[in-house]
Amino acid sequence: MSKIVRTGVSFPEELLRAFDKVIEELGIESRSQAIQEAIRHFISLHSWRIAEEDVAGAVLVHYSHEEHGLEEGLTDVQHEFIDLVPSALHLHLSKSDCLLIIAVRGKASRVKDLLKSLRRVGRVKQLTHLIMPTY
């Protein structure tokens, strides 16, 4: 088992109240446990950006299929990164809006390149991602 290190952290009062409310709603046993979970989540979200490691995750692209050439451009980018994109899912949100969920698995640097390429395709409404190290 790892050595436990105690530390002190300062919070604005309203932030701590909101945190405690979420802890209670989730049934987490202690504030320490919740902070550890939050730190692990923060590391997962961001560590892949600074290391050359294997990662996996999903890229979500919200767009209008009425935007000329956009769907074709998004598909072309996926084919450029065929080594990284094992699967994609297309959801119809409304008559004009779609959500593309692109599964990714590979090197962090390739995921960064994929995200840049997707942003260059055209006018997407929103592009977000959840990428995690696979260690």
Short recap of the structure:
By secondary structure, the chain is of the alpha+beta class.
Description:
The chain is an alpha+beta fold. It has 2 domains: 37 residues; 80 residues, Alpha-Beta Plaits (2-Layer Sandwich). It contains 4 helices and 4 strands; from the N terminus they run ααβαββαβ. β2 and β3 form a beta hairpin. α3 packs antiparallel against α4. The relative contact order is 0.20.
Q: Report the sheet with the most strands, covering strand number, pairing sense and barrel closure.
A: 4 strands, antiparallel
Radius of gyration: 19 Å
- Percentage of residues in DSSP E strands: 25-35%
Per the CATH scheme, the topology name of the largest domain is Alpha-Beta Plaits
- Poorly predicted spans: none
Mean pLDDT: 91
Distance between the termini: 19 Å
Order of helices and strands: HHEHEEHE
Total of DSSP H or I helical runs spanning 4+ residues: 4
The CATH architecture of the largest domain is 2-Layer Sandwich
Instruction: Report the helical percentage.
Output: 40-55%
Structural class, by secondary structure, is alpha+beta
| Name of the CATH superfamily of the largest domain | ACT-like. Chain A, domain 2
Domains, number: 2
Given this structure, which CATH class of the largest domain is correct?
Answer: Alpha Beta
Total number of beta strands: 4
Give the strand order of the largest sheet, numbering strands 1, 2, ... along the chain: 2-3-1-4
How would you sum up the global shape?
globular
SSE blueprint:
Blueprint: H1 13-26, H2 31-46, E1 54-64, H3 70-80, E2 87-92, E3 97-107, H4 108-121, E4 126-133
Antiparallel strand pairs: 1-3, 1-4, 2-3
Helix pairs in contact: 3-4
